[in-house]
Amino acid sequence: MKNDGTFGINMKQYCRLHESAVRAALEENRITAEFLSAHQEKVRIVQHERLVHLIVTVMVVFVELFVVDLVVLHPELGILPPLIMLGLAVLLGFYFYHYFFLENTVQRWYRLEEELRRNCDN
Q1: 38, 42, 65, 109: which has the fewest C-beta neighbours closer than 10 Å?
Q2: How far is CA 27 from the centre of its chain?
Q3: CA atoms of 29 and 23, how far apart (whole Å)
């Protein structure tokens, strides 16, 4: 099945393709002001994605803490709260993984931007 963007983009692939294009342009020494501007726009996109994931992750952490409180203080509620707690813990693991991917990508792209500025032919 082809990914036409209906359900969002694959951020890892998006970042990998852009980063390889930047590295190829640096190797071939073909950096223009337009290329630098396009890179800066992609940095802004990933920064926004990172911020959204940070907000969502923090909100899920608060819900997880609330559910942990329910499990510890109200064991009479049965099996449902511990199952929800476990599900949220797994979800948080994926959120943390993706957030750190975005954070590290933005940091790497900051360094790439510095290289692009040094090699820009304007």
Answers
A1: 65
A2: 27
A3: 10
Q: Report the predicted TM-score, pTM, of the whole model to 2 decimal places.
A: 0.82
pLDDT in tens, 10-25: 889 999 999 999 999 9
Helix axes 80-119, 11-28, angle to 10 degrees: 10
pLDDT tens per residue, range 27-66: 998 888 999 999 999 999 999 999 999 999 999 999 999 9
CA distance 119 to 29: 7
- 18, two tokens: 């852009």
**Cα 10 from Cα 63, distance rounded (Å):** 27
Instruction: Work out the mean pLDDT of the chain and round it to a whole number.
Output: 91
Report how far residue 85's alpha carbon sits from residue 82's, in angstroms, rounded to the nearest whole number: 5
Quick count: other Cβ atoms within 10 Å of Cβ 38?
A: 15
Place of tokens 């709260």: 81
